[in-house]
Amino acid sequence: MSTDPAPHNVEFPSAGATAHGYLALPPAGHGPGVIVIQEWWGLTDHIKDITDRLARDGFVALAPDLYGRTVAHDSAEALRMMNALPTAQGVEQLEGAVTYLLSREETRGDTAGAVGFCMGGGFVISLAAADERISAAVPFYGVNRDGVPDFSHLKAEILGHYGELDEGVPPSSLVPIEEAIREGGSGIVPTFHLYAGAGHAFFNDGRPEAYHAEAAELAWARTLDFLHAQLDPKA
């Protein structure tokens, strides 16, 4: 498998079909792997930018396209597309992406990280619960749509970022998730950060009405430190 240093679209087998994604490689050409999971809008330029940023910081970053190369243009369409993707189906697609990412010669290690936003934040939690190859999970303002997952096989350390003013994913929604993780028997204690003055989608700099620069910068710094510590401790 040849190394192409430029970010590019890729195809790979997943869930019995051909899946698509956006892959970005680090300057060194190799590094730990991280899956980047889209918001309900789809694989947008914002998600690609996050993937590029992770690559620049030393990670082999893959953003799988859960909507099959379709992007929503308004919230009604995004809601329809999200609801058409059951959690179990999305997790199956993401597991295929993890297999592909870990199979690439540029990827170091036998586990990967996962970072996701909004809908993707919920998928981060569900994927970490289902796939023991995920060792570092970073949900941004996301919880599972279908209730609390079974965390009995959880191997991932979890670092979450949530806005104190988020009405869609209020801080109180984290309580059952944290309790289930603690009771799952893994011994893992999640870390959930709350950001004062920030609401939903505070990390999305493409949405001026939601973006909170101070919260976004702090959450990103914490995310990079966490991923390096979990996936690349010698960095």
From TrEMBL:
UniProt entry keywords in alphabetical sequence: Hydrolase
InterPro entries: AB_hydrolase_fold, Dienelactn_hydro, Dienelactone_hydrolase-like
Boundaries of every Dienelactone hydrolase domain copy: 21-229
Superkingdom, natural source: Bacteria
Pfam families listed in its UniProt record: DLH (PF01738)
A molecular function GO annotation: hydrolase activity
Name of this chain's protein: Dienelactone hydrolase family protein
Organism: Streptomyces liangshanensis
The organism's taxonomic lineage, starting at the top: Bacteria, Bacillati, Actinomycetota, Actinomycetes, Kitasatosporales
